[in-house]
Amino acid sequence: MDKAFQGFFRRVRAGQKAGYPRFKGRERYDSFTFPQAGQTGVKVQGGGKRVFLHGIGSVKCKFHRPLEGEVKTATVKREGEHWYIVFVCETEPNPLPENRAAVGIDLGTNPHFLVTSEGELVEAPRYFQKAQAKLARTQRSVTKKRRGSNRRRKLKMRLARQHRKIANQRKDFHHKLARRLVNRYGTVVHEDLNILGLARSRTAKGVQDAGWAAFLQTLAYKAEEAGRRVVGVDPKHTSQDCPVCGHREKKPLWVREFTCPACGASLHRDVAAAINVLARSGRAPDRRWARTEPSGMGTAWAVP
Ligand SMILES: [Zn+2]
């Protein structure tokens, strides 16, 4: 509080926009960090069963996995009624054996999360939709309860729990999918999202934007750790060009099947886009797909 007021008076004296300090209820505190946890403030005790936090004491913990490398920082955070300690550790990279295979991915329209240049159609797991419907139900009942009532508070907690569960399921899906791609390919080429927003209509692709950004981040760091490459390319016209002969179709977005009027090549639209994405990276295209029947359609990666 002292810091907040000192900052306030300093800004007043300097004639800046001051901004009177606001009250911050306990609900709004949800994390704090020990910036030098490796040296001071935090200590793992009892063979990994407890953690000593300076100023708080020894707390019982369940380690989700053993600590690796050198501890840098530790952040204590609360999510709903759950408390976590997040350790940031510096570790050595863990490179995978060299792999020359490259793949392009098209961030798909429903129901596909993504589609690869090898014809794999990856669906987002079904339980997302189910959980989402449940969430909407809880959300509706919250609004029916009186403000400040006990029932409302309890329902809100349930709502938070459901939100957390969906977030965790999504993260789990992203991790497994990214792991698969990184294990299988030396280079993964995707559409650059910063450009994507401008290049494509919001209606076609906008809905899942946030999910993709998170996925691509996961993909990037996994690839980095494994010594593999992830490349973002300009997605302009990737869903309009024929990957075989380069003919550009004006408005093919709504057709699932892509049949090139110039050369007769027939492909799944998103697979064609993924092949174009791959080609954008400057990799010599692999001619395996250059045949006239749709390749590998209908194969999907099931999430275990
Ligand atoms: Zn063509």
From TrEMBL:
InterPro entries: Cas12f1-like_TNB, RNA-guided_DNA_endo/Transpos, Transposase. Residues 88-201 form the Probable transposase IS891/IS1136/IS1341 domain. GO terms for molecular function: DNA binding. Pfam families: Cas12f1-like_TNB (PF07282), OrfB_IS605 (PF01385). It comes from the Bacteria. Residues 212-277 form the Cas12f1-like TNB domain. One of its GO terms (biological process) is DNA recombination. Transmembrane segments: none annotated. Keywords: DNA recombination, DNA-binding, Transposition. CDD domains: rubredoxin_like. In the C-terminal section; belongs to the transposase 35 family. In the N-terminal section; belongs to the transposase 2 family. This is Transposase, IS605 OrfB family. It comes from Calidithermus terrae. The lineage of its organism: Bacteria, Thermotogati, Deinococcota, Deinococci, Thermales.
